[in-house]
Amino acid sequence: MNVVESKDGKLIAIGLGPDEKLLESVKEVIRAHGIRDGAVVSGIGTLKRCHMHYVNTTGFPAENKFYVIEEPLEIVAINGLIVDYEPHLHMAAGCRDQRAYVGHIEDGCVVLYLAELVIMRTEGMGLRRETDPKNGIALLKARA
């Protein structure tokens, strides 16, 4: 993994190589650089193993369907937020027969050739997630 930080510290680029783990690497950078609040503003690359989930219902409680794809995938977009040091990232990726896979990124995604992401710090926003007692969904709130 290669990590480059801008001179003002607001942007951090992450370069991953073959067999590195996508989400686990992002979490490592968040810890090492003390990124409490931020946004992943760009993410591209390739995967040989993809582990994601998506919402499988329209009612409450929400149900998630988890899936693993083990074939070459082209990452066309990764974005999301970092709130209280925790990344919440979504991805769209496609394969050779033009199928698209989308969802919430889980641990266990493995880079095929490379993956490149950029994190933008949003320090001072004071973000947190709070579970709504009515529906069990963790919603974005201002930190007190």
Would you give an account of this structure?
The chain has 144 residues and is mostly beta strands. The chain has a single domain, classed as 2-Layer Sandwich (60s Ribosomal Protein L30, Chain: A). 8% of the residues lie in helices and 58% in strands. The strands form two sheets. Strands 1, 2, 3, 4, 5, 6, 7 and 8 form an eight-stranded antiparallel beta sheet that branches. The chain has a two-stranded antiparallel sheet with strand order 9-10. A hairpin with a 5-residue loop joins strand 1 and strand 2. The longest helix is centred in the first third of the chain and has 12 residues.
Secondary-structure topology with pairs:
Layout: E1 2-5, E2 11-16, H1 22-33, E3 37-55, E4 64-69, E5 73-83, E6 86-94, E7 100-105, E8 110-121, E9 127-131, E10 138-142
Antiparallel strand pairs: 1-2, 2-8, 3-4, 3-5, 3-7, 3-8, 5-6, 6-7, 9-10
Q: Can you count the helices?
A: 1
Radius of gyration over all CA atoms, rounded: 16 Å
Can you tell me the CATH class? Alpha Beta
Strand content: over 45%
What name does CATH use for the topology?
A: 60s Ribosomal Protein L30, Chain: A
User: How many structural domains are formed by the residues?
Assistant: 1
Mean pLDDT: 96
- Bin the helical content: under 10%
CATH architecture name: 2-Layer Sandwich
Structural class: mainly beta
Uncertain parts: none
The SSE string, one letter per element, is EEHEEEEEEEE
Distance, first to last CA: 35 Å
The coarse overall form would be flat
The major beta sheet can be summarized as: 8 strands, antiparallel
